[in-house]
Amino acid sequence: MQCKILSDNFPTNCMAVLTIGGCLIWLCMPGYLGMQRLEAAGVISVSMLVMYYVLTYLERTARLSQIKKNWELAGEKVHLMESISKLEENYLSTIQSIAAAIDANATYSSGHSARVAGFAVKIGRAMGLCQDELDSLERAALLHDIGTIYIPDHVWRKEGPLTVEEQSLVRQHSVLGAEIIDSVKSLKQESLAIMHHHERYDGTGYPYGLKGLAIPLESRILAVADAFDAMTSERPYRDVLNMRDALEELYSNAGSQFDPRVVEGFLTVLDDITRETEVVTFANKRFGARVYSMVGNC
Asked: Rounded to whole angstroms, how far apart are CA atoms 131 and 137?
C-alpha cells in the first residue's frame, strides 16, 4: 500500500526531495562562494528543474512499460483460461466416453453410469455439497464401475447367481477401478469415492469393511444412487423391482447398508429422480457387465 502511495504521488515526492536537496546545498555554500551565491542559486535551480523533468520522464516511461507488460500478461491469462476451459471440456468428454464404453458391454446396463451420476448429483446438492464437490461426485459416479473391465467376460454373462469365488472376483472391481483412477493426480478424491462405494454403513461391506462416517461421503451417496438404479433396472437373473419395492428396500436398509442421512437426501429429491427414471430392459438375452450391488446380486 505504501509503495502504491509513493508511486501515485511521484511528481510531488520528487519535487519535495529536490527542493530540500537544493536548500541544503544553498545553506552549506556561504563560506565558499561569498557574493557568487546568487549565481550558484540560479545554477542549482536550473539543475534541479532539469533533474526533475528527467526523473519524471523516466518514471512515466517505466509506468508505460509496466502498463504494456500488464496488458500482455492479461492477454496471456485470457488465452490460458480459454485453453484450460477447452481442456476441461475435453476431459469431461473423455470421462463420459469411458463411462459409455463401460456400460456398452451389456444392453441392460446401457446408461447405468450416467443415471447413477444424475442421481448422485441430485442427492449431493440436497445435502449441501458445493459445486466443486458435486463435480467431483459426478466424475466418480461416471467412473465407479471402470474396474469391471478386468473381470472375465464369462462372469458377467452368467445368468444365474454367482458362486462365492465369482462374487469374490467381482468384488475386486472397486479396488481395481480406484487403482486405475488413482494414477491420475487430479482424480485422487474420485478414486477414494470409487474404492469405497460398496462399503456398508454397518461395516459389513467391501473392500475394507469401513463403518459409518469412516466411509467417504461421496461413497455413501454413490452407494444409494447405484443401488437404486440397480433395483429399478432389469437384470438377466431377476425382474425389475417396482418403485415402491425399491424405495422400501432403501428405507428398510437405512442405518445398516446405507447412511440414513443420504437416504433422507434421496427422498427429498425423489420427485425429480422419478420423473427421469425409466425401467431399463434388456433384449435378446445379450447379457454383459454385471454390477454386484450392495442390494443382493444386482
From this structure: 10
The domain segmentation of the chain, as residue ranges, is: 2-81, 107-276
Q: What is the pTM of this model?
A: 0.65
B/e letters for 172-205, b = 16+ CB within 10 Å, e = fewer, are: ebbbbbbebbeeeeebebbbbbbbbbbbbbeeeb
What is the structure's pLDDT at 243?
Answer: 83
Q: How many CB atoms lie within 10 A of CB 246?
A: 19
The pLDDT score that the predictor gives to residue 288 is 35
Q: What is the largest CA-CA distance in the chain?
A: 119
Cβ count within 10 A of residue 59: 14
Question: pLDDT at position 74, please?
Answer: 80
Domain 107-276: CATH superfamily is: Hypothetical protein af1432 (1.10.3210.10)
Q: What is the 3-state secondary structure (H, E, C) of 234-292?
A: CECCECCCCHHHHHHHHHHCECCCECHHHHHHHHHCHHHHHHHCCCECCCCCCCCCCCC
What pLDDT score was predicted for residue 180? Answer: 84
CA distances from 18 to 37, 50, 54 (A): 18, 11, 12
SS3 at position 152: coil
- Report d(CA 136, CA 133) in Å as an integer: 5
Yes or no: say if 136 and 189 are a contact pair by the CB < 8 Å rule.
yes
Residues 112/144, Cβ–Cβ less than 8 Å? no
Mean pLDDT in order along the chain per 10 residues (298 residues): 49 65 60 58 70 78 83 79 73 70 61 89 95 93 87 75 86 89 82 95 94 96 93 69 87 94 93 66 37 40
Q: Which pLDDT value is given to residue 292?
A: 39
Distance CA 6, CA 14 (A): 10
For residue 119 the three cell numbers come to 442421481
